[in-house]
């Protein structure tokens, strides 16, 4: 008989969420999410005081363009992949490294529940930090008169960022479960492979996550399939893999 | 789940909800609460009734101090009409007014169109002197919605002035000024409830002067024969803005009825531009101006930007001097 999945997943989720939110690592997440807000405040103050105006190609950059740039260049290109990498790879890899995975494996619960519970905790943790950061950037950077026009874009961006966090987290969770040194490979994937593949002609760009998060080529279906597949494979991997803890 | 974790999650959700609620309010109400929340658009728009067909704004100080204005000073009218702002109140555009907003109300009667014009001016006004000057002309002073309202109204004259805020006056026909005060008080719909109009204002309010108008309200005053105007594709709104320095950097934007009309309009303007380039190619100054013209179409919008350099302005002023016709007698105007 297969052990139940739901109840242990919930227990692991609650346990992992508390640990994740109040860990020292959260300082990194807060800094990553807080930097765009600070940038938005500085930009808005500078524009309000008239001390500087951002002009590109002779045209004054409006709040719509500035907010769009913040979302694509700061969040989708940097913050979302970076958080997905650092948190996703550490979900299981840290337990292995700290040799505490044994305690979890000795409990009478399905190993898949450990992965699923930790993944859901990661998702809630990063969403609760990154989405309010986007919301603050929106409120600070966009004047009220433009908010109505940008409201739909905001909702779309929040959805896209959530999907991005889920997709990167799921893929790097699988990497953390499967490989011994997932962080380095993840860094190469995000800041090497994705950047190069997106500029190359042909179909190589389909082998990135960023491609499906770009406004012109966004694919919610592809991202959801990717998330489900990565989490499922990670759950299967942890159930079958034998972890040898180094002394 | 620990209490501090719950508190953190609720706080995060609160921030998110606040942004979404603000965005939703902005989206749902359009621009009606702009003035209340301190938007960049002129706050004087709060006095413009929703029936306005044309609104124009000018930073008078900037216009007056620009070299552009110096070139055209010679064309200014030297004897204003009886009901003009200067004749009725003694207020001088050159020295007393910092910025001005003019609104033209909906009316089918072309002759009465000027009577439906409202002027909202911000500057330095000597209320006692202005009121005295108007009283000498038979003006009566009443209170309207707590505002001092000075009006001259008989069979041939209709001019009223209200001191609505420190440094802010309304001037126009009596009913128009009353309607403006009503609009500010919320008793009648203001122009800021018109989302389409406010979106256009948001696009052009960076200039020294700008104007947004329903196309049918200005088509009769365009310097083209009616036969040509009638051939234009359907246009809903026309917006224009200009930034002044030694020259003029202008932008004219038309909002067509649909994308096909916008495309047709773009083709028509493109044709005119090609013709103008053919005609103006021999004169370097005109050629430079025509080269600066950029025509773009985006959805239902067609935009035309251009630069009038000092050399072109010199050419225009010299040709204006040569062909300027004698002023024809006209109906008394508000200003």
Question: Would you write up a description of this structure?
Answer:
The complex is a heterodimer of chains A (247) and B (335). Chain A is mainly α and 247 residues long. Chain A has one domain. Helices cover 77% and strands 2% of the residues of chain A. Chain A is built from nine helices and two strands. Chain A has a two-stranded antiparallel ribbon with strand order 1-2. In chain A, β1 and β2 (59-60) form a beta hairpin. In chain A, α3 runs antiparallel to α5, α3 (63-97) runs antiparallel to α7 and α6 runs parallel beside α9 (220-240). Chain B has one domain. Chain B has helices at 3-29, 60-65, 67-72, 85-89, 93-96, 127-136, 174-185, 195-204, 215-218, 226-231, 259-280, 284-292, 310-323; strands spanning 52-59, 97-105, 117-123, 140-144, 147-153, 158-165, 168-172, 209-214, 235-244, 248-256, 294-298, 301-308. A twelve-stranded antiparallel beta sheet of chain B has the order 4-5-6-7-3-2-1-8-9-10-12-11, sandwiched between helices. In chain B, a hairpin with a 2-residue loop joins β4 and β5 (147-153). In chain B, α11 runs antiparallel to α12. The longest helix of chain B is centred in the first third of the chain and has 27 residues, at 3-29. Classes of the chains: A mainly alpha (247), B alpha+beta (335). Chain A binds chain B through residues 14, 17-18, 21-22, 60, 124, 128-129, 131-132, 134-136, 138-139, 143-152, 154-155, 158, and chain B through 1-2, 4-5, 8-9, 11-13, 15-16, 18-20, 22-24, 26-31, 33-34, 37-41, 195, 198-199, 202, 206.
Question: What's this, in brief?
Answer:
Chain A has 247 residues and is an all-alpha fold. Helix content of chain A is 77%, strand content 2%.
Count of discrete structural domains of chain B: 1
Number of strands of chain A: 2
Oligomeric state: heterodimer
Structural class of chain B: alpha+beta
Strand order of the largest sheet of chain A: 1-2
Mean pLDDT of chain B: 76
- Tally the beta strands of chain B: 12
Radius of gyration over C-alpha positions of chain A, nearest whole angstrom? 20 Å
Count of discrete alpha- or pi-helical segments spanning 4 or more residues of chain B: 13
Query: What's the overall geometry of chain A?
Result: globular
Shape of chain B: globular
Percentage of residues in DSSP E strands of chain B: 25-35%
């Amino acid at each position: 008989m297969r052990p139940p999945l739901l109840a242990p997943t919930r227990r692991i989720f609650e346990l992992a969420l508390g640990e994740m939110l109040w860990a020292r690592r959260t300082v990194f997440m807060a800094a990553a999410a807080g930097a765009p807000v600070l940038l938005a405040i500085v930009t808005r103050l500078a524009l309000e005081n008239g001390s500087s105006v951002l002009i590109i190609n002779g045209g004054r950059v409006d709040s719509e363009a500035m907010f769009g740039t913040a979302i694509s260049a700061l969040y989708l290109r940097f913050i979302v992949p970076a958080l997905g990498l650092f948190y996703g790879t550490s979900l299981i890899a840290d337990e292995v490294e700290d040799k505490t995975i044994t305690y979890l494996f000795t409990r009478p619960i399905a190993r898949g529940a450990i992965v699923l519970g930790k993944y859901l905790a990661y998702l809630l943790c990063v969403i609760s930090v990154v989405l309010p950061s986007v919301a603050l950037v929106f409120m600070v950077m966009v004047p009220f008169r433009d908010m109505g026009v940008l409201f739909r874009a905001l909702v779309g961006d929040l959805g896209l960022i959530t999907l991005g966090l889920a997709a990167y987290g799921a893929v790097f969770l699988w990497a953390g479960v499967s490989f011994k040194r997932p962080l380095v490979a993840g860094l190469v994937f995000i800041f090497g492979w994705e950047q190069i593949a997106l500029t190359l002609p042909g179909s190589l760009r389909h082998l990135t996550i960023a491609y499906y998060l770009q406004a012109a080529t966004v694919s919610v279906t592809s991202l959801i399939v990717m998330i489900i597949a990565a989490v499922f494979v990670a759950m299967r991997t942890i159930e079958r893999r034998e972890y040898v803890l180094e002394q | 789940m620990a209490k501090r974790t719950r508190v953190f999650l609720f706080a995060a959700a609160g921030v998110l909800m606040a942004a979404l609620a603000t965005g939703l309010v902005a989206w749902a109400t359009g621009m009606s609460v702009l003035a209340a929340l301190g938007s960049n658009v002129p706050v004087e728009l709060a006095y413009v009734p929703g029936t306005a067909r044309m609104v124009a704004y000018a930073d008078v100080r900037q216009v007056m101090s620009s070299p552009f204005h110096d070139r055209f000073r010679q064309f200014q009218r030297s004897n204003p009409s009886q009901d003009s702002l200067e004749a009725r109140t003694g207020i001088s555009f050159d020295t007393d007014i910092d910025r001005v907003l003019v609104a033209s109300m909906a009316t089918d009667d072309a002759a009465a169109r000027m009577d439906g014009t409202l002027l909202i001016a911000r500057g330095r006004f000597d209320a006692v002197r202005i009121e005295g000057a108007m009283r000498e002309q038979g003006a009566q002073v009443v209170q309207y919605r707590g505002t001092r309202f000075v009006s001259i109204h008989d069979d041939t004259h209709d001019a009223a002035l209200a001191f609505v805020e420190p440094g802010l006056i309304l001037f126009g026909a009596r009913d128009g000024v009353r309607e403006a005060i009503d609009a500010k008080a919320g008793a009648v719909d203001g122009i800021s409830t018109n989302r389409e109009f406010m979106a256009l204002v948001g696009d052009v309010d960076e200039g020294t002067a700008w104007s947004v108008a329903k196309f049918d309200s200005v088509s009769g005053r365009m310097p083209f024969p009616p036969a040509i105007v009638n051939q234009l594709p359907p246009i809903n709104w026309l917006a224009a803005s200009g930034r002044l320095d030694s020259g003029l950097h202008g932008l004219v934007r038309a909002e067509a009825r649909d994308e096909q009309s916008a495309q047709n309009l773009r083709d028509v303007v493109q044709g005119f531009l090609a013709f103008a380039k053919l005609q103006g190619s021999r004169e370097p100054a005109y050629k430079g101006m025509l080269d600066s013209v950029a025509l773009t179409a985006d959805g239902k919008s067609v935009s035309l930007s251009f630069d009038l350099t000092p050399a072109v302005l010199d050419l225009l002023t010299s040709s204006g001097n040569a062909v300027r016709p004698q002023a024809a007698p006209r109906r008394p105007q508000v200003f």
